[in-house]
Amino acid sequence: MPVISSSSTILVTGGTGFIGAWVITVLLQRGNTVKAIVRSEAKGVALKRSLFQDKRNEGKEALLDVVVIEDLTKDRAFDATIIGVDGILHLASPLSIDATSEPEEIIGSAVNLTLAVLKSALWKPQF
Description:
NAD(P)-bd_dom_sf; 127 residues; four-stranded parallel beta sheet; 4 helices; Rossmann fold; alpha/beta; membrane; NAD-dependent epimerase/dehydratase domain-containing protein; globular; oxidoreductase; Epimerase_deHydtase
C-alpha cells in the first residue's frame, strides 16, 4: 500500500461542511493537491472564498481543484474524478432532515453515497 505523502493528491467529499473544510485546510497546508467534490458551482465558489480568505491557505489556490457532481449517489458518479488521486477522504453525507424524515431514508442515502464512492475506488484504473 503506497504511503500518502505531502505530494499526494487527495479526493475529499463533503468539503463544504465544517469538518470537510478543516480537512481541506490541513491538506493544503501540508502541500497536498486536493480534489474537492461539491454539488453545485455556487457551492464551489463559496468553498474557495471561505478557504482562501483564511491566511493559512494563502498562495495555495493552485493546489485545489473543485469538481461539481450534482448527484453524488448516481452510479459511477466519481469514476472520472477519482483518476489521478492517491487517497480518498469520504466526509460527505446527504442530509435533508425534517420532522417527517424516517431514519431509514437518512441512513439509506448515506449508505448509497458511501457505496458510490467505494465502487469508483474499486474501479479506479491502475496506471
